[in-house]
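Minutes, project check-in

Agenda point 3 was the complex the collaborators sent over. CS summarized: two entities, 489 residues total, and the question is how they sit relative to each other. Sequences were read into the notes so everyone works from the same version.
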Amino acid sequence: MGLKVYNTLHGRKEEFIPLTEGKVKMYVCGPTVYDTSHIGHARSVVVFDTIFRWFEKLGNEVTYVRNFTDVDDKIIKKSNETGEDCAVITEKYINEFHVEMDALNVRRPTIEPRATGHITHIIDFIQMLIDKKKAYAVDGGDVYFSIDAFSDYGRLSGRNPEDMRAGARIAIDEKKQNPLDFTLWKPAKPGEPFWESPWGKGRPGWHIECSAMSYEYLGEGFDVHGGGKDLIFPHHENEIAQSEALFGRQFVKYWIHNGFVDINNEKMSKSLGNFTMIKEVLAKYPAEVIRMFLLSNHYRSPIDYSEDSMKEVSLGLDRVYAFMERLDHTGIKPCETFNSELWEEFCDAMNDDFNSAKAIASVFEAVKKGNRLLDDAKGIPDESLSKELGLMLHDIRSAAGILGIFLLSPSAYFAAKKEKGMADLVAASETTTTDSSSSLAAEIEDLIRQRAEARKAKNFKRADEIRATLQSMHIVLEDGSGGTTWRFE
RNA sequence: GGCGGCUUGGCCAAGUGGUAAGGCGACGGCCUGCAAAGCCGUUAUUCUCCAGUUCAAAUCUGGAAGCCGCCUCCA
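CS then shared the predicted structure for the full assembly.
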């Protein structure tokens, strides 16, 4: 089965056929770098990162462009407030963005162009639009795109320019020929950053950078353009207008838009004060849990961030790693002879409009099946079972490469969890004696030793007391054939 | 006002015509000194409601109710 993609342009799933076989060109709108990124940015980036990986896995050579908007009114506002130069501000938030995305195991796009690095291209683009009578400059140095010169305006967002003109929310601007005309170039006020242009000192409008930069790196038309749902109108609608008005051909074949992240079932908003930043979330949960959470719903559906949902994802992650650890202890090695049922299901899910939620479910199904097989074999698999489990492990690893989760060795995963639990425990103990992690670990090990002795002496009362003591420290004991192990719950 | 979306078990959530994935939780069982983990079974004769199309609908059509998003910067 081939890949199917939901195309916002037509409102339905379509078979994915790139313009050039074996090559996929995609452009995704990146952040405006005037502030710290929030969990919603993370979703968009993680979703498209996964899509990028899947295109590659299907054998395509992918050119992935994700821009930084580094010239914008909000940046200027921030600069005026802080006294910092715009370039200092944008550099700071670009670095921050990279650090956070690296933590979320997001691969860098092929190219990450910045608007300020492409002013010449932008000016050329605008000039071509003016030459084609698709845009006009007015006194004062503004340049506008003329909606009336592009008959298809409104197609992507399903809007009718007539209706919108009637809407009360469009500000009337006397300089515009049509109130819906949008800015391509705006003149600089004193103190604002500017570039020289045929229309005087000024800076580009928001939409034009994406048309100009995508043209620069991907050409007049390309395969995929993505971004958050909120960008459909006006941003992407305007990009289409600019690019198609100029080149007279289809700009983008497939438009892909991701849904929002809600916080406790509410939209993130300034008035609610619930903007949840990536760095806050990273401080609270392992990056892998966050990434898995972001992929646990279909990318077009809203997803709700809450303590409960994060906890649930975390437990699910434990389950997968516990299985891999079990395979490890049984001496199973990944083996790669042919693909298993898991891999087929995983591919079907990903091919169905990048259904990562379903893809993750296929991993859980394999885990259950694998556990059952191991139980049936009393933990001692014969050769054919070892092979089957090895295959399963191999396919979980393959899925991990796409999803960007389940990539750690189980021992590293559980070691990190222990370390975190230990740190929390030390931080929580308000005793005057400064408990360090190492002395705490020794204490735990000692209690476990005492319990082992008690059990040997059939003193189960004492053994259970020790278990209860550790339980109160959120430590769970597991008595296995090879002795007692412990973990944080 | 215009445009779009959503409503699936206690909770989260897949599922666009063929008879309800998966996770978390709960309960019962196996295992265990007792647990934990794992496994097995039970937890939706039914998918907000009403009507229609069809041999067949959670899935298509029409209507109702509730919720949400975009139309202004926003992932």
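Noted in discussion: Chain A has a mean pLDDT of 92.
Follow-up: revisit at the next meeting once the mutant set is ready.
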